[in-house]
Amino acid sequence: MQLRLDRVTRQFGTRLAVDRFSACLQPGIYGLLGPNGAGKTTLMRLLCGILSPTSGEILLDGIPVRQMGEHYRALLGYLPQHFGCYPGYTVEQFMLYLAAVKGLPRSLARRQTDRLLEQVGLENWKKQRVRALSGGTLQRLGIAQALLGNPSILVLDEPTSGLDPKERIRFRNLISEYAAGRVVLLSTHIVGDLEAVAGQLLMMDGGQLLCQGTPEALLRQVEGMVWETALPAAEARALADRCHVTAIRLEGETTHLRLLADARPHPLAQPAAPNFEDLYLYHFADKGQSLWVD
Fold first, then answer.
1. Are 47 and 123 in contact (CB under 8 A)?
2. Burial code of 213-231, b = ≥16 C-beta within 10 A, e = fewer?
3. What domain range includes position 23?
4. How does DSSP classify residue 66?
5. Sequential DSSP letters for 103-137
6. Of 181, 214, 247, which closes a domain?
7. Last residue of some domain: 214, 238, 263?
8. 205-251 residue pLDDT tens
9. Contact predicate 89/98, CB 8 Å
10. Which contiguous run of DSSP H or E holds residue 21?
């Protein structure tokens, strides 16, 4: 299976939300990274057929998805950033309703509902009204409904929003197990979740694809640019005004800094191994803005 985006563009009035975006997605987990307003949600809505491209084409195994209609939609699972539901339904009723919308036979719908609710830790919530669910619990329901029908293409927009650390680990394990033979596109600002599961990263800004590659390959972009040092507060503040600060830790009169800089920013600074947060800030932090908070 190959899902290909060929110079996909989506325009709203004079604004280009997605601008000539091209990528080739084969089975695996893809992390979509970018700042707010980068076009990530619009891109996901295009992939799911909720929006149509202004120009360009989305193709599945060489066939334009606009020609595939219901057959393509049957292959999709989607969790939107703002997950809507029917508050008067019970959790079980909501899942069975969506299974019916997807065309699942009732016996299969019930089996999948039971299995998915157990996998997301909601097996004891079946009879609860959706309106009674907390934000994190509702998000788990959203993940479960996206997996109904065993979709071949799974699009998840901020799926770990509102989940506590234990629930995030459960989600990551579930998606890792599910991804075999499927295309999974995952967008989140929690870069640690992508670090744990994504085999490929797509970095996006201004509606355009900046780069794509394995985490290891992209991290090499910031090798030799990450530094750590410990300094008195005044000296640390002066250094932070010249560099991107990715982490600050106070210890008595000493300030520990993690920094991004092209060259050793201070005689006491030592090189550090880069991580995803360093990579994110390298691409997306405002070059004229200090990340120091008074």
1. no
2. eebeebbeebeebbbbbeb
3. 3-214
4. G
5. T--HHHHHHHHHHHHHHTT-GGGTTSBGGG--HHH
6. 214
7. 214
8. 999 999 999 999 999 999 999 999 999 999 999 998 888 898 999 99
9. no
10. strand 15-25
